[in-house]
Amino acid sequence: MVDTAPAHLTSTPAAEAPDADATGDPAAGTPVGATDTDVRIDTTLLGELLLGRWAEDRRISRRLTLDPGLHKIEGQPVPEHRARTLEQLRVLVDAGAIQRPYPTEFGGQENHGGNLAAFEELTTADPSLQIKAGVQWGLFGSAVHHLGTERNHREFLPGIIRFDVPGCFAMTETGHGSDVQSIATTATYDAATQEFVVHTPFRGAWKDYIGNAALHGRAAVVFAKLVTQGVDHGVHAFYVPLRDAEGAFLPGVGGEDDGVKGGLNGIDNGRLWFDHVRVPRTNLLNRYGDVAEDGTYSSPIASPGRRFFTMLGTLVQGRVSLDGAAVVAQKLALQIALTYAAERRQFPTGGGDEGVLLDYGRHQRRLIPRLATVFAQSFAHEQLLQTFDDVFSGRKDTPERREDLETQAAAFKSMSTWSALDTLQECREACGGAGFLAENRLTGLRADLDVYVTFEGDNTILLQLVGKRLLTDFRARAPRDAASTARFVAAQAASKLADASGLRRLGQTVADRGSLAASVTDLQDPRTQRALLAGRVDTMVAEIGIRLASAGKDRARAAKLLNRSQHELIEAAKAHAELMQWDAFTEAIESVAPGDTRRVLVWLRDLFALGLLEQHLDWHLLHGRLTAQRARAVSAYVDRLVARIRPVVPQLVESFGYAPEHVRAPIALGEERARQEEAAAWFAAEAAAGRLPEQEKKPRP
User: 565 by DSSP, 3-state: which?
Assistant: First the structure.
């Protein structure tokens, strides 16, 4: 899964080969006689590349979010924020913004990729709006759509789509979050009345953290263990009414408000419990499991485990959309922080005038590598959307493609949501006190996106799923007979011996010839970058796989070894996600013709790659993958790339395509520039009039 380079890396393209653009400085990537300030990006072309396949869907959503009525009011009290968000969902319905993924007979377009692309852009208006809409149509509605059959669709989808029935997605329980298979809520079939009896037997079984549950939800898709004829058939989904037309709980249903949260307070999260609530047999969403009138259970999937994971796999779009929303939030934050940094002046420079923050090396280092990362995440997310659309459109709905979708979604969602918190915090700090003001949005975005790292799957759990997929692929490649296994292990041991003895580093030392420039040149080669990134993944997975193989058929020992390897497994999963992001970035570059735009994308891709190497230098040094000389070259080249990219930062930000109404941060919309111009004009006028006092001159020591 990770050990084969893409076809486009079997030879180095001329336009991005080491030194292809650099006939002067071998690491500069700029033609002789030119400077980096002469570089002109085609921002329209780059903007289209970032918008991706579903560009028009994104544009439609961006135009919609120009409406001030959809914008978050920072500091608004929770009750008013909740009421405002509820009404905003009605605006989306009236605008035709939510029908894209549904069947045409219900007014939809069966446009799955475009739906998520448009949905992610709602983040620019208010993350609460994006998530509340996601609860209604991406979870509640999607569960009915993808877990139900025609009978469910006819009965329930019209009210969901029109928003006549605000709904909930009631899966998580107080006692079980990511471990859905162990939930305790039951739905027991009563053949005498042809009803299911939904029941939460104890407090830990309450459905918790449920969007729309505290106030607005009129019905819910409730996940419960289906029991019929005394047999537990595992977790299934049921459509359960919650409240009457006046908003009062129906008999047997109860709940409470989760109260104020750390963010997303436009959503009324709450808890739900059920005391022997009866629903008709036909309220079972029965695509993957059904119960006949007499109580006989049937399913097109015989294996209970495969049935469970197939049902959950149909709901993967939540993770896909969170990945995209996290990328959108980072773009907004970087646009705010980088624009401010290009205008805010602080501290005298060598010429005596105050310099702009973005001209200081440390400020460049804290923001520009994160800019490179968000480009990588954008291109990776576009590939994830493509995989999602392939599966949900039915064009490539194979078990292998679904497995790829689940792995990509788990990996990218984890990496981008963690990255969002890091980037938002760094942008906040980079803007100083101005960044802490709510009006400049960074603190609000940081608070709202905090929960993204734990819902739709806790990131740590998701990365374990990715790691287990890597181990499965490793086992499929590893030999099974004793003699071949011995040779395989010996080869791995020889590889580790080469690492430890420095043989790998010796080859690099000869190639580098003691020259930092030679080291940098090699690190510019995409084949070298990928070999280092992929080699780290392969080695980490192989080490864990061989360790687990030592347990043989002793399942208890294997489980203990896996538990001890969890940290390494998660690190391997992260490394695999980073490799997939690098691959996506490189493939995006291939679609751009030679010229300045491609050149800058290569710089950004190189910065992303070298930044990853710099983060993990200890691993590469310990495993003999980099010499000390080449390790020094990594940081030196990162510094050089950051400085090279600095002049084109405004053009890169422009390519995001966000209007002032999307950004809505005064420090990024001319306020700081106006202050600086006013100050400069005042000092110039005072100096011209001779009104400035003389400065005290201290004697030199």
Answer: coil
Each residue's pLDDT tens digit, 359-371: 999 999 999 999 9
**What whole-number distance in Å separates Cα of residue 320 and Cα of residue 423?**
20
Question: Is a pLDDT exceeding 70 seen at residue 519?
Answer: no
* Degrees to nearest 5, angle at CA 332 with 328 and 334: 115
pTM of the model: 0.90
Structure tokens, 433? 């006190």
Residue with tokens 């400035």: 692
Residue ranges of alpha helices (H) inside 431-554 are 432-436, 442-449, 459-477, 482-501, 503-512, 516-524, 526-549
Lookup result for tokens 């590939």:
383
d(CA 638, CA 520): 10
Q: How far is it, in rounded angstroms, from Cα 662 to Cα 336?
A: 11
pLDDT at res. 25: 32
* 496 C-beta neighbours (distance < 10 Å), count: 15
> Which residues are 221's β-sheet partners?
169, 239
Tokens of 528: 């070298």
Angle at 21 between CA 19 and CA 24, to 5 degrees: 70
Which amino acid would we find at residue 606?
D
Please give the single-letter amino acid code of residue 415.
M
> For residue 581, what are its two tokens?
């992001």
* 399-430 vs 361-392: helix crossing angle, rounded to 10: 160
Residue 348's H or E segment, with its range, is: strand 345-348
What secondary structure, in 3-state letters, does 133-152 show? HHHHHHHHHHHHHHHCCHHH
Please give the residue that has the higher pLDDT: either 695 or 361.
361
Cβ pair 90, 97 in contact under 8 A: no
Distance, in Å, from the CA atom of 496 to the CA atom of 697, rounded to the nearest integer, reads: 64
DSSP string, 24-48: SSTTT-S-TT--GGG----HHHHHH
d(CA 169, CA 208): 10
Q: Is the pLDDT of residue 509 over 70?
A: no
In the beta sheet, which residues pair with residue 284?
238
Strand partners, 271: 256
Round to whole Å and give the CA distance between 601 and 592.
Answer: 9
Q: What is the pLDDT of residues 95-128, one digit of tens each?
A: 999 999 999 999 999 999 999 999 999 999 999 9
* Predicted confidence (pLDDT) per residue in 343-357, tens digit: 999 888 777 788 899
DSSP 386-443: HHHHHHHTSTT--HHHHHHHHHHHHHHHHHHHHHHHHHHHHHHHHTHHHHHSGGGSHH
Which pLDDT value is given to residue 14?
Answer: 36
Alpha carbons within 13 A on the beta-carbon side of 268: 23
Check: CB of residue 145 under 8 Å from CB of residue 157: yes
**Confidence class for position 518, pLDDT limits 50, 70, 90:** low
Q: What are phi and psi of 384, to 5 degrees?
A: -65, -45
C-alpha 371/C-alpha 373 separation (Å) is 5
Maximal C-alpha separation, the chain: 101
Catalytic positions, please? 456
170 in Cβ contact with 221 (< 8 Å): yes
Of 424, 429, 415, 263, which Cα lies nearest the Cα of 330?
424
With tokens 């009290």, the residue in question is 77
Taking CA atoms, 258 is separated from 111, 211, 428, 472, in Å, by 34, 10, 28, 40
Predicted local confidence at residue 517, as pLDDT: 66
